[in-house]
Each structure stands twice: as C-alpha cells, then as structure tokens.
Design a protein that fits this description.
Distance between the termini: 54 Å
Shape: elongated
Radius of gyration: 24 Å
Order of helices and strands: EEEEEEEEEEHEHEEEEHHHHH
Number of domains: 3
Strand content: 15-25%
Structural class: alpha+beta
Number of strands: 15
Length: 324
Amino acid sequence: MSGSGICYPLKDHLGSIRAIIDGNGRLLEENDYYAFGHRHSRSEQVQSSANRFKYNGKELQTVGGLGYLDYGARMYDQSLGRWFTTDPLSEKYYGLSPYVYCGNNPLNMIDPDGRAASPYYDSDGFFLGTDEEGFRGTVRIVTGRTAASKSKERLSPQNSKPLEKVSLSAKSYSRIYTDILKQLGYDVSLLDGGEVAVKNGDDTYNDPFSSVEYAVTTYIVGNKNFRISVDQMNDGVQRDLNTVEHIENVLGVHEYTGHGIRRFSEKKKTHYMAYELQFKHASWKHCTPLFRGGMLSRYYGIVKKENPERYRQMRPFILKYWYK
C-alpha cells in the first residue's frame, strides 16, 4: 500500500482481496475474479491503491511484468489457470497434469501453497473440504475457532494437525472413516448402522466387536450387512490409519471388499486373499514403505499357514519387498 494511512482489506471466503477501504470507509480498490483467478476488469471499478495481494490473498509478482501469483511452492498464472512449474509432489498424482490447478475444479477446491492435497475434518468428524487436487493424502483435523471460520485459511497445515496427532471421540473417528469410504464410492449402507464401528478405550460408537484388535469385520446373521470395527487405541491403527490411501487400503479394500463382500475368512483359509486385494489395489502404490512393510509381514505369516503352495509362489516377491 502507498501512503501512511490506515487501510482495511476485505476478503471473500477464498481469501481473495475483494475490496480495500481506508480509515474513513472510502473505497480504494475493488476486485472481481473469474473462477481460476483472472481479474474481471470493469471500467467502473475503483483501482487507486498499490495493493499487490489479489486472488486467494496471494502476492502479484510485478517484477519483469510477469504477473504471476506467488503461492510459496510455485508460481501461478491466473490468466491461464495453470501453474508455471510442475507440482513438486506430482508423482503422487499420476492421473493429473502436474500443471493443473485444483484438479480443474476451483469452485469446490482450494490450494493454499501449491503442494499436496489433504482432506480436512473438524474435531467432530465432519468434512470441511480439501486443499488441492482432490480427496487424498494426509487426513488433517482443524480444531478450535478456526474450524468454525468460513475462510480458506482454516484449510491449511498451519491451522490443523494430522489425524494421528489428535485425540477424538469414537464417534468422530467413525464419521471420518465412514465419510472417506463414502466419498471413495463404497456403499456404506451395507455397513451395520451405516457407519464404521469404533472402540476408543471405554468410549465406543456403533457397537464395535468387543474383541477387536486393529480392525475386524463381523457378519450379521440373516442379513447381507456386516460390521467393520476399529480399535482406535491400537498402536497399529494410530500409525496406519492416517491417510486416505491407508484408510481405503485397510478399511475399504481389506475389510469392506475382502471380508465384507467376498467373505474371505480364516475359517475358509482365504484370509490371505484379502491382503492380496490390498497389494493389487491402486491405493497400494501411494501407501508408505512402513505401512506396506507391515502389511507384507502380516501376509507372510497368514499365507504360509493357510496356503503353503501360494506361499511358495509369493515368497520371491515378499523377499524383494513387493511395492506393486
């Protein structure tokens, strides 16, 4: 801003500077934007300030007349609706162009810094939105007054914590797990009670299986529905169920599809097949090495017991630490 007076920027829900007024309420600047951030110029708009913060509250780079917006991780060309450089985490999103902005859907998504996507929930387990390129990555929890805010700044790493770093109620964990499955296309009406059951110490929700360790699927007699129960106090759950990909791989692929739909079980000596579904699923490639190592270790013990011949077939892959 120029001069020494007091000025007030007025932002919309996306953090974009829509107007600037001085201490007397006089309008100094007025901005309208197209969906991808290009300014909509109108002859009657007031433009008398030296403000460089525009769309999403990002600073316009005027040196050299480039006109890019600085998001931190990379520069954005609001005239083209594309990033000037590739996504530094583009290998995680092979289905999208590394230059695409907000998955080509800026009406429903925002991007605070030009990097990876994360779904955000409040401490009650209600979905708040994503920060870029869709529904994937670390699940983050927005707490306190920030969660009640309608501004885009609430959906940022600075105003949230990873799921494994917070302590929530069993009901909140259930809402998060259920919502993730639902958004990924799983028919949650097949779950008993329509939600994932969670045991969190003495706090329980949706009648979880009493002897659950980690996660387990049980069946309802005379009913096609089934119950997925999660022991939130289990160290493995706290370590593993913290990203969309991990949650889908365990609760969606192994439990829902493997045990719930296909009815793989230890009794039928087909439990190992639920793990093989995990290895073949697209989410497996986006799981961490620690997660994959843990699943392969469990698979190793189960397949060796249930199907020795299959164990001999798979042993070379296990020993090579199968990442596919």
